[in-house]
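User: Some background: our group keeps a shared notebook of sequences we're curious about, and every so often someone picks one and asks for a predicted structure to add to the entry. Today it's my turn. The entry only has the sequence so far, pasted here. Could you supply the structure so I can complete it?
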Amino acid sequence: MTIDIITPSEKLFSGSAKQINLPGSDGSFEILENHAPIVATLAAGNVVIVDDQNQQQTFEITGGVVEQSANKVIVLVE
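Assistant: Of course. Here's the predicted structure to add to the notebook entry:
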C-alpha cells in the first residue's frame, strides 16, 4: 500500500509499506494492506511505518487525521 504523511509545510513521508501504526483518538490501531476504508482522528503520539523489508520509521505527531481507501493511506498531521 502507499502512504503519504503530510504537514502544512512539508511531506514527511511518501512511499510504500506493509503496515502503519497510528495513535488514534480512541486508542492505537494499525492499517494493513486491503484494510477496509477508514477515516479517523489522531491523538499525540508516534506513527510507525513498517516497510516490505521490516524496517521501521517513526514520526512523532501532535494530532491529525488519517484516511485510507483502496490501499492508499493519507495522514494529515500537525
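Suggested note for the entry: The first strand starts at residue 2 and ends at 6. The chain has no helices and nine strands.
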